[in-house]
């Protein structure tokens, strides 16, 4: 491996800890708050977590450490998609664990949750950890998407933990992984395994967020990376003055990424899936909304602009949702016959017969490559892979059609030349920003504090994040406090509620108050590349979303 | 306009000048070297430039300034695509001009070369300049693609220059624009207009390079931006371990961008158009070359990887070139009839009859969306818009077919899941790196020195760039020295030769010596985001290409 100059420089970065943790492991005391209750469906959740329900909130503070002095053997798992800072969670965990007792051991289970099921691990050493400090990616131990959720899996995990004489397991993941961490904690406790489970909130999507989690890690770095690119494209568009750029960003269920990037870069248009769903905006309404901006800018002489959309958008558009369902159903029944049809026109004929008239109308609106994507790229369950659909092209196509109509009616006289982008993989493994580097290191450090003080079924929490690091507050929250019951796959399940964009929240309200002006004028802002050095107001600032939600903007 | 924290911080950056220019305008003397000759076709070029041929090379040095003290009114034009640093050329020019004489005036012609033809300009003030220092984009005065090349245009330009009592015009552009700058300089001199013309070497493509131009500005920043993204994707790929990323980069005629990014990030595969052309590699050879890497990595358990290709690649693949020519010809003749064919299958039937058997075979290899692109997106001359063709998808498709064959033959047993990216607009308007900020400012400053010392038909040159800024050498070179005669549009024309990737040069040789290992193993390097602050070896380092070409790597 060749080390780039930035990687070399980042090795020299010491993540900042909250002031309350700076006294060192022996100088950190614990304080308990009130007992907690589930977010809703309290009785049902209490019944499902008889051993771990109703535990108290936990805070750390300066003071004599009263944790039981025993040797800890801790396992750690990275679960799901990459998010910048994952390596720093492990580094913080490792440093706390070793500062408590040099004989403590940290095991890294490889390739995600399947690592513990297959007993596939490495013992993490200083040498390994040092190679990954303040770097992006999850490649130190790898990640994976296996879900730890069945009784059989828990038994295997317990056996592996017992074999290694493990005292605790730290799971770094999103809402599903932390839900499963709580269920596993309950299982371990119920079966007297002596193994504690602690979760850490990870996801670039920003949808693992609630009263106790101000932001998930990785969101800051990923959105800064996408905002760099959007800003660069804005500046290019305003210089070349000839393209409309349609930019799709990751974010399937929630649109936090798109909203944050819009707040940073002020594009002409940003669509928010939550709003599209709430207003039941169809393709026509969306096409008109964008075309209105194109037309009003054209009338000012600006035949260029920027449209930002979240990846998941089209699943929230009523008639597209219906079309996708009908195609899924048709291909589930007749897939083999359909695939054998030798020509494209025969396939179209088949579809025309099989789909509803309205859905076929929608289908015919789509550009040919997207029609193909809807029919060809299917996941193992036979469903359309929505993330593969080039929503950005679909939108520019319906806008183009709309503009042609307006031109014929004499209501538009501009030029419309669209270009398309999708940003996602570019940001998931970036070097963590100072914010994410500090936040993640603190989360990992706090996770070990929770372990040492004997807690299980807790999420490591670091709060007051919109303030300077010295004022951050580290602690722990019972995962069951964040839960309610939801219908998933035909069953009622306890889950951590996914945080969608709050249409009444301050970030969206700010966007809503400004977007009319942004749509017409060029209010572009150019954030540029993430800076790890330089003035603190540049290198240490965090997301607009977090700052606005905490009245720091 | 809202100013981002980085933009605010960059306003505070003072570009570094070469030591020889640090004494201030009054302390800079000139020295002339030997008379120059054209690169080849000397007599023909001398005949075309009777008034500006054979001038002497010029160097600047510390010493008493002996330039004639007169008031200067200088015009400046940005020509062609955006390149980071353009604003700094103008800032350097402005600062030198004002430090020579507060009464000097700088006019910015708007929207590219057409600005002088339409007499569309603004008078540049400190207030305007200060808003654009160290920022990306060309939006201070805009750019455009009009070519200044006809006698009629020259007459208009001369009239506009006379109207403003201009003493000089600075043209910031690529090889064509600087060629035209030389022709315009000759015209102005022949017609005794008293207007000097100075060129500045701009292009992110890096193909304006020769004995006298070590690199064009913008190349450094653009390739750093693309390398950031490629590195992030590499790290993501190595963490997720499930995708092959096909990444297309700008660079139509030359592959300097792809090569530089490959040197920085060490992807598994990087194709260089110059090599593909030289070896007459067809699609089959390319598919096999990539598939070999996929298979050898799969045998090591790595079902992921990175393929980098230049935008212009397929124009260098013999059979695709032929296919495109045949399609262009067919549609030129029968376009209207073809467009009216109601179904895709009828269009295919038409093509089958019209194209050669071999070309139809190539056409059938292509995925449907690329077939559509070849048939639909045409420029005003009826030609395929090659840059719109998703070469990255074309390649992954032929590789997939090849892998299926190998699987059937029992020679491959991996998984192949491709993802696609195109990076170009993301880098053209980025905040200039310290290198480009310093280089551009020095180019602009030097351009005014050339003007003040009375030179015309010169390119502003800053050399010794692989060393620290203090050792850079500023001067000027007659543009005719860089010229030879080429056949363009059926005529012999004097042009600055485009610099293609030299397959015998050090950057390519280094790549060639390492690529076999990179293809099999994961030698990824993660450059991360451009840093404007921090340690000098990080923030001030320049491109690998430049360093290797000058033995500084």
UniProtKB/TrEMBL annotation, chains A, B:
<comment type="pathway">
    <text>Carbohydrate degradation; glycolysis; D-glyceraldehyde 3-phosphate and glycerone phosphate from D-glucose: step 3/4.</text>
</comment>
<keyword id="KW-0808">Transferase</keyword>
<dbReference type="InterPro" id="IPR022953">
    <property type="entry name" value="ATP_PFK"/>
</dbReference>
<dbReference type="GO" id="GO:0046872">
    <property type="term" value="F:metal ion binding"/>
</dbReference>
<dbReference type="GO" id="GO:0003872">
    <property type="term" value="F:6-phosphofructokinase activity"/>
</dbReference>
<keyword id="KW-0418">Kinase</keyword>
<feature type="site" description="Important for catalytic activity; stabilizes the transition state when the phosphoryl donor is PPi">
    <location>
        <position position="202"/>
    </location>
</feature>
<dbReference type="GO" id="GO:0009749">
    <property type="term" value="P:response to glucose"/>
</dbReference>
<dbReference type="GO" id="GO:0005829">
    <property type="term" value="C:cytosol"/>
</dbReference>
<comment type="subunit">
    <text>Homodimer.</text>
</comment>
<feature type="binding site">
    <location>
        <position position="175"/>
    </location>
    <ligand>
        <name>Mg(2+)</name>
    </ligand>
</feature>
<feature type="binding site">
    <location>
        <begin position="242"/>
        <end position="243"/>
    </location>
    <ligand>
        <name>substrate</name>
    </ligand>
</feature>
<keyword id="KW-0479">Metal-binding</keyword>
<feature type="active site" description="Proton acceptor">
    <location>
        <position position="205"/>
    </location>
</feature>
<dbReference type="InterPro" id="IPR000023">
    <property type="entry name" value="Phosphofructokinase_dom"/>
</dbReference>
<keyword id="KW-0460">Magnesium</keyword>
<dbReference type="InterPro" id="IPR035966">
    <property type="entry name" value="PKF_sf"/>
</dbReference>
<feature type="site" description="Important for catalytic activity and substrate specificity; stabilizes the transition state when the phosphoryl donor is PPi; prevents ATP from binding by mimicking the alpha-phosphate group of ATP">
    <location>
        <position position="176"/>
    </location>
</feature>
<feature type="domain" description="Rhodanese">
    <location>
        <begin position="438"/>
        <end position="481"/>
    </location>
</feature>
<dbReference type="InterPro" id="IPR001763">
    <property type="entry name" value="Rhodanese-like_dom"/>
</dbReference>
<feature type="binding site">
    <location>
        <position position="81"/>
    </location>
    <ligand>
        <name>diphosphate</name>
    </ligand>
</feature>
<comment type="function">
    <text>Catalyzes the phosphorylation of D-fructose 6-phosphate, the first committing step of glycolysis. Uses inorganic phosphate (PPi) as phosphoryl donor instead of ATP like common ATP-dependent phosphofructokinases (ATP-PFKs), which renders the reaction reversible, and can thus function both in glycolysis and gluconeogenesis. Consistently, PPi-PFK can replace the enzymes of both the forward (ATP-PFK) and reverse (fructose-bisphosphatase (FBPase)) reactions.</text>
</comment>
<feature type="binding site" description="in other chain">
    <location>
        <begin position="250"/>
        <end position="252"/>
    </location>
    <ligand>
        <name>substrate</name>
    </ligand>
</feature>
<comment type="similarity">
    <text>Belongs to the phosphofructokinase type A (PFKA) family. PPi-dependent PFK group II subfamily. Clade 'Long' sub-subfamily.</text>
</comment>
<feature type="binding site" description="in other chain">
    <location>
        <position position="311"/>
    </location>
    <ligand>
        <name>substrate</name>
    </ligand>
</feature>
<protein>
    <recommendedName>
        <fullName>Pyrophosphate--fructose 6-phosphate 1-phosphotransferase</fullName>
        <ecNumber>2.7.1.90</ecNumber>
    </recommendedName>
</protein>
<dbReference type="Pfam" id="PF00365">
    <property type="entry name" value="PFK"/>
</dbReference>
<dbReference type="GO" id="GO:0047334">
    <property type="term" value="F:diphosphate-fructose-6-phosphate 1-phosphotransferase activity"/>
</dbReference>
<dbReference type="GO" id="GO:0006002">
    <property type="term" value="P:fructose 6-phosphate metabolic process"/>
</dbReference>
<keyword id="KW-0324">Glycolysis</keyword>
<feature type="binding site" description="in other chain">
    <location>
        <begin position="425"/>
        <end position="428"/>
    </location>
    <ligand>
        <name>substrate</name>
    </ligand>
</feature>
<dbReference type="GO" id="GO:0005524">
    <property type="term" value="F:ATP binding"/>
</dbReference>
<feature type="binding site" description="in other chain">
    <location>
        <begin position="203"/>
        <end position="205"/>
    </location>
    <ligand>
        <name>substrate</name>
    </ligand>
</feature>
<dbReference type="InterPro" id="IPR011183">
    <property type="entry name" value="PfpB_PPi_PFK"/>
</dbReference>
<keyword id="KW-0963">Cytoplasm</keyword>
